Amino acid sequence: MWLEFSNLTIISLNCLGIPAVHLAIAWLCEQFSDHRFIRCLPSVAPKPNKFYEKYLFIRRWKHLLPDGAPWFDGFPKKKLKSTEPDYLRKFILETRRGEFSHWVQWILITGFIAWNPFPANLIIIAYAFASNVPCLVNLRHTRQRLLPALIKQL
User: Fold this and answer.
1) Residue 1 lies in a domain
2) Is residue 2 part of a domain?
3) Which residues have CB under 8 Å from 34's CB, separation 6+?
4) Per-residue pLDDT tens for 49-105?
């Protein structure tokens, strides 16, 4: 524990600060311009990567993840609504935005260990991991599935 606070202050910081970080970073990332997340498309469609399905069983649990983007008038990524190239480009862009958001959330929430004593600091690290890694995995998996569909249409 790098900073000393009373137990009540620590509990307050955690209970108010962690949700605030999630929401603030998600909102902030929605405000960023799309051009920050645009990448060149590969000229050849990548081969399907079955790792996510075979070893992480992503199809069994991905429906349980929330899609926070619509809370801030962002692009909904829960369901694919079209296969039009412009829509797929936007969807892929939004998976990058979501991935960036979750990486920043993971890093900032892990920083809460600065005032949490042992073993609470381990719980904070586990929470930061558990609340962001499944989303990161799902976003990458989704992007890997959409890229071949988009490239095939171009």
Assistant:
1) no
2) no
3) 93
4) 788 999 999 999 999 998 888 888 889 888 899 999 999 999 999 999 999 999 999
Distances (CA, A) of 144 to 47, 50, 92: 9, 10, 9
Residue 122 lies in a domain: yes
DSSP states of 131-150:
HHHHHHHHHHHHHHHHHHHH
13-52 in b/e form (b: 16+ CB < 10 A) is bbeebbeebbeebbeebbeeeeeebeeeeeeeeeeeeeeb
Domain count, the chain: 1
Place of tokens 């009540």: 8
pLDDT number for residue 10: 94
Reference 30, options 96, 87, 106; nearest CA is 96
CA distances from 16 to 5, 11, 13, 53, 122 (A): 15, 8, 5, 35, 18
> Distance (Å, rounded) from C-alpha 18 to C-alpha 149?
37
Q: How far apart are CA 17 and CA 110, in angstroms?
A: 12
In a domain, 31, yes or no: yes
